[in-house]
Amino acid sequence: MRIDIITVVPALLEGPFSHSILKRAEDKGIATVRVHNLRDYAGGKQKQVDDYAFGGGAGMVMMIEPIAKCIEALKSEREYDEVIYMSPDGKTFSQSMANELSLRQNIIILCGHYKGVDERVREKFITREISIGDYVLSGGELAAAVVADAIIRLIPGVLNDETSALTDSFQDGLLAPPVYTRPAEYQGMKVPEVLLSGHQAKIENWRFEASVRRTKERRPDLLSGKEL
Ligand code: SAH
Fold first, then answer.
1. How far apart are CA 36 and CA 38, in angstroms?
2. What is the pLDDT of residue 30?
3. Band (166; pLDDT cuts 50, 70, 90)
4. Residue 131 in contact with ligand 1 by CB distance below 6 A
5. pLDDT of res. 141
6. Distance between CA atoms of 225 and 122, rounded to whole angstroms?
7. How far is the CA of 133 from the centre of ligand 1 (A)?
8. Binding site membership of 126 for ligand 1 (Cβ less than 6 Å)
9. Residue 34 forms beta bridges with which residues?
10. What is the Cα–Cα distance from 42 to 106, expressed in whole angstroms?
11. Binding positions for S-adenosyl-L-methionine (predicted)?
């Protein structure tokens, strides 16, 4: 997979992809993330990427020309399955969306800034608009990093233990059960006996029940219409 992220603040994206699991994905050649500075596609000495909103009002709007140049340059090199715009009015990001996107080959993610992008960018180029929640960030970079992380960790070979992504919260519509590691007892707090029993069927059963209990308590909405 290849993810191209377009931004006016590339430095915001330097951290997330150069460490840990996402770095390993890049090192193994499983997922490549390339960050593009929109200013490189801007005209004039000023390298202008934004301008006043027609009709007035506070806040600058990102112009269509630099964005169009950048997207067209990328598209001339390869085919893209999706051109995503991060936006608070997009569809709320979810595990099922991450699952779907993890099957794609090439994705562009456009990060907005200021008041967002000229509406015509959305009409002309964008195939999908994603919000990471009902709050407003100052730019799309952190949101793009969230989406890219959630997608990349699902690609086979990225996580060490292949089954580990499948047992995370939301994958089966349930929250994950509690987890424990050594020591078996800490200041009188004991790990549930069954987890030390070595009896795999009983352990699985305990985990399933703990998942259901936790989901009932914290996210009953996930259980509605579900048969357990
Ligand atoms: N004026 C816009 C908000 C602009 S915020 C509005 O009211 O809808 C600037 C940029 O940050 C947006 O263009 C978008 O790319 C990004 N952004 C802000 N909040 C976001 C969210 N919840 N999810 C995804 N991207 C977001």
1. 6
2. 95
3. confident
4. yes
5. 98
6. 35
7. 10
8. no
9. 4
10. 24
11. 112, 132-137
Q: Confirm or reject: Cβ of 137 under 6 Å from ligand 1.
A: yes
pLDDT in tens, 144-153: 999 999 999 9
Cβ of residue 93 lying under 6 Å from some atom of ligand 1: no
What is the identity of the amino acid at 105? Answer: Q
- Tell me: is residue 221 an annotated ligand-binding position: no
Atom of ligand 1 nearest to the CA of 110: 15
Mean pLDDT for the stretch of residues 204-218: 97
How many angstroms separate the CA atoms of 215 and 175, rounded?
5
> In a 3-state reduction of DSSP, which class is residue 108?
strand
Nearest CA to ligand 1 atom 26: 87
- The SS3 assignment for 63 reads coil
Task: Give 2 Cα–ligand 1 centroid separation in angstroms.
Answer: 23
- Tell me: cis bond preceding 156? Omega within 30 of 0 counts: no
Q: Which of ligand 1's atoms lies nearest the C-alpha of 134?
A: 22
For 123, how many CA atoms within 13 A lie in the half-sphere containing its CB?
4
203 assigned binding-site residue: no
Residue with token string 């086979």: 156
